[in-house]
């Protein structure tokens, strides 16, 4: 008989399947305190964000202790929705919020449709990406779609839907969803550094949900046959750097083995090995400081523009601050040039620039 497994958390649907499988069979976890803190901070901020939205007119139901749990089988999964913007609670939005909300969402709300809401807290860099492109084309923001599509499809598929709050089972029809629910999901991105909001309206995608289900079912089939799936990452992926099962992962083992062989082959004298280590550590520290400095510089610039507008000249006791509008540069359109070259049969002239020494200093897992 197939082994009964605990449910997979829908929020981990995009994870490496070996990592999920370890969680299902209860392999000892190597605790990563930074992960716990990140999760706690995100969870603590959520009610504050929902309150802020409610004050601006977006009342969300099924939050906090009333949070809905969606469950589906094949494979067995559970998820907890952040909330549903219930149509009959919407009386209009404050101007600042209305300006940020996607028009399609406003249209759905005006037509009396309720909308599933997902809130994501983000650091400044990720939020800037989200504000421009949404969850698309970003290494980890894009993984949120796995979770969101899973929630949504359980919510709109009555035969696989079970929902309950902490006390009572709630039937789908009782909460007014499944009938009057929009076919899109509202994603709210909240910038933890600047307290700014941004939104994206995503269409429910059944094909993508089926793809997620298929991938997870394949992993469950491996586990139930008594084997663990192969790692989905190569050990250098960002997910590996804070994986609680890295200590027993074949991808990491392979990586360390190769690197140890390379280390032996490097044959550095003791003194030069120490010097190389010290310089690599110093480089890593400088790089971190540069990153923090760059982000801080951007924030200060934004604050100055907000405070004084642009263009502006401000004289302070120690500085002369000029804020000016810089026009976009005219650049050669590579694609158009290639098309012209092909059409008229000429070769695009190129010239070789001076070479330089590149540097890449990467952490070694299990060491740093
Ligand atoms: S270390 Fe990477 S490859 Fe290995 S289980 Fe964790 S996430 Fe997967």
H/E element sequence: EHHEEEEHHEHHEEEEHHHHEEH
What portion of residues belong to β-strands?
A: 5-15%
What is the number of strand segments?
12
Work out the count of structural domains. Answer: 2
Bound molecules: iron/sulfur cluster
- Most strands sheet: 5 strands, mixed
Number of helices: 11
Explain this structure to me?
With 368 residues, the protein is α+β, with helices and mostly antiparallel strands. It folds into 2 domains: 217 residues, Lambda Exonuclease, Chain A (Alpha-Beta Complex), CATH 3.90.320; 56 residues. 43% of the residues lie in helices and 15% in strands. It contains 11 helices and 12 strands. Strand 11 and strand 12 form a beta hairpin. The chain starts with 7 loop residues before the first strand and ends in a 24-residue tail after the last helix. Bound molecules: iron/sulfur cluster (SF4).
Set out the fold topology.
Layout: E1 8-9, H1 17-25, H2 33-55, E2 60-61, E3 69-72, E4 77-80, E5 83-85, H3 95-100, H4 103-110, E6 114-122, H5 124-133, H6 144-156, E7 163-164, E8 169-170, E9 181-191, E10 197-203, H7 206-224, H8 238-241, H9 250-266, H10 270-308, E11 312-315, E12 320-323, H11 334-344
Bound molecules: iron/sulfur cluster.
Give the structure's gist in a few sentences.
The chain has helices spanning 17-25, 33-55, 95-100, 103-110, 124-133, 144-156, 206-224, 238-241, 250-266, 270-308, 334-344; strands spanning 8-9, 60-61, 69-72, 77-80, 83-85, 114-122, 163-164, 169-170, 181-191, 197-203, 312-315, 320-323.
């Amino acid at each position: 008989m197939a082994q009964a497994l605990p449910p997979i958390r829908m929020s981990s649907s995009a994870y490496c399947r070996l990592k999920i499988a370890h969680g299902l069979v209860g392999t000892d976890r190597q605790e990563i305190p930074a992960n716990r803190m990140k999760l706690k901070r995100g969870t603590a901020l959520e009610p504050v964000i929902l309150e802020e939205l409610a004050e601006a007119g977006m009342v969300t139901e099924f939050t906090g202790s009333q949070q809905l749990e969606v469950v589906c089988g094949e494979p067995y999964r559970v998820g907890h929705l952040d909330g549903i913007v219930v149509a009959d609670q919407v009386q209009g939005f404050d101007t600042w919020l209305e300006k940020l909300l996607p028009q399609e969402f406003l249209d759905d709300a005006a037509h009396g449709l309720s909308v599933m809401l997902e809130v994501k807290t983000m650091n400044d860099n990720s939020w800037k990406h989200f504000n421009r492109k949404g969850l698309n084309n970003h290494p980890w923001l894009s993984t949120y779609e796995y979770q969101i599509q899973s929630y949504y499809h359980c919510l709109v598929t009555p035969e696989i839907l079970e929902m309950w709050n902490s006390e009572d089972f709630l039937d789908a029809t009782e909460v007014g969803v499944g009938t009057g629910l929009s076919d899109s999901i509202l994603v709210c991105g909240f910038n933890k550094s600047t307290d700014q909001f941004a939104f994206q309206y995503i269409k429910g995608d059944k094909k993508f949900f089926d793809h997620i289900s298929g991938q997870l079912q394949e992993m469950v089939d491996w586990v139930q046959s008594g084997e663990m799936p192969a790692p989905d990452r190569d050990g250098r992926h960002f997910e590996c750097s804070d994986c609680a099962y890295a200590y027993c992962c074949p991808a990491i083992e392979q990586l360390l083995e190769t690197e140890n062989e390379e280390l032996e082959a490097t044959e550095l004298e003791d003194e030069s090995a120490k010097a190389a280590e010290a310089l690599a550590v110093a480089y890593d520290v400088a790089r971190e400081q540069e990153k923090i400095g760059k982000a801080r510089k951007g924030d200060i610039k934004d604050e100055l523009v907000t405070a004084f507008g642009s263009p502006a000249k401000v004289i302070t006791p120690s500085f002369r601050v000029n804020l000016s509008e810089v026009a976009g540069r005219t650049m050669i359109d590579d694609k158009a040039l290639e098309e012209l070259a092909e059409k008229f049969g000429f070769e695009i002239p190129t010239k070789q620039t001076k070479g330089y020494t590149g540097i890449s200093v990467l952490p070694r897992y299990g060491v740093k």
